[in-house]
Amino acid sequence: SRSPPLVLTITSRFKTPAAPPVKTKLTDINPFTLDLTWDPGFHYDCNFISWEVQFLSLNDTNSSAVAFQTGTVAGIQERIFGHSKNPDGEFSDDWSSPIENCDTDFDRYFGWCRIEPLISNSWISVRIRELCDNPVLHSPYVVLHKWKVEAPCKQADKVDLVAAGDNGNELSLQFWGSTVGDCNEAVPQMDTIPLGGRFWQTTPGSCVLNAHAPYEPHDLLEGVCTSTLLDPDTLYFSQLRLSCPAAEFMNG
Q: Is 134:47 a contact under the CB 8 Å cutoff?
């Protein structure tokens, strides 16, 4: 006679999601740019599709400008919540759409992407995860936080000599294209040096400007500045920049 058959019941294990990325890091490149770097975690049962990176900035009312790489630094003002150039902007605490520049679907081990243009002088959160062909196996998010530094004043795009004063001791320069960055009390600073001189000197004078402090972030500042008390019949070299009284590192 035969013995009864041996019946074995085997239960397959649950598939294991991808581990979260490791060695994640945000690095400041400039006030408007962050570099995100990472190494992949172990994939387990995940078949890699791409990396998903999103960002959140509470006072950015148009995160798609970063997500879809359609924004410019010149257009930052229109995204700042509460700015006069963004009167209809709505406060949002939602994560952005995935940043197209960061999906890196061509290589699981290419752990780098650039996020820009971000709003300077703001709190930025970034999260990243690995996407798999089975959504159940997506890795958990890793969330990082970074305070974007203040933007310094931007130097003028163009500076021209207007005229020397009739009495021979004045010199006027006109400038265009400067922005105040995040310095709301920026002031033009005009320096001169005579031919053969050793040191640049900030000379007394005055400016006629297109706007007055306090400024809003990234306001355009243009005008004419005049240095006085110069020596007559002397050849001078002049330079002009925006200076930030509150923080020297924000000078143009």
A: yes
195 CA to centre of own chain? 40
Nearest to 173 by CA among 89, 127, 230, 115: 230
Q: Which residues contact 215 (CB under 8 A, 6 or more apart)?
A: 180, 183, 184, 185, 186, 221
Residue-by-residue pLDDT tens, the chain, 252 positions: 567 777 766 655 689 999 999 999 999 999 999 999 999 999 999 999 999 999 999 999 999 999 999 999 999 999 999 999 999 999 889 999 999 999 887 789 999 999 999 999 999 999 999 999 999 999 999 999 999 999 999 999 999 988 777 777 888 999 999 999 999 999 999 999 999 999 999 888 899 999 999 999 999 999 999 998 888 888 888 899 999 988 887 887
| Token couple for 62 | 């148009």
Task: Look up tokens 């649950």; give the residue.
Answer: 14
Q: What is the DSSP letter of 134?
A: S
What is d(CA 127, CA 42) in angstroms, rounded to the nearest whole number? 18
Q: Which residue bears the tokens 């196996």?
A: 137
Give this prediction's pTM.
0.84
